[in-house]
Automatic annotation (TrEMBL):
This is Uncharacterized protein. It comes from Paenibacillus arenilitoris. It comes from the Bacteria. The lineage of its organism: Bacteria, Bacillati, Bacillota, Bacilli, Bacillales.
Amino acid sequence: MSFFIGQTQNHEDNQAQLLRVYTDLPEESGWWVVPKGVTKMTIHAEAQNTETVLFWLIPTGTETWSERKLIGYDKDGHDGWSLTWEFGHERLHDHIHVQALGSDSYTQSNSTINVTTKEP
């Protein structure tokens, strides 16, 4: 991309964009469900203008952002943005918050999905 003196670039064209977040788990009523016996999941993010994608686990409830835990990140989007997370036998009823950090070192885009462990 080249520019001429006095020409400006539309900043929105370079902003981080998180287009879609999904997992390899079944989805039911807006929740991604961990079936019995499953101990890991892959979280996928479709993003543009992104340098790094962060994956956070946040408890359900109100004002729980301060209780978040970074479960991983992906710095190489050439093969798609994703994280395979081994959570073991931890029972989940949480949010997974995904942050796409912009390649412009300024913008970010966020999305949250819900994940729960299937009752036995």
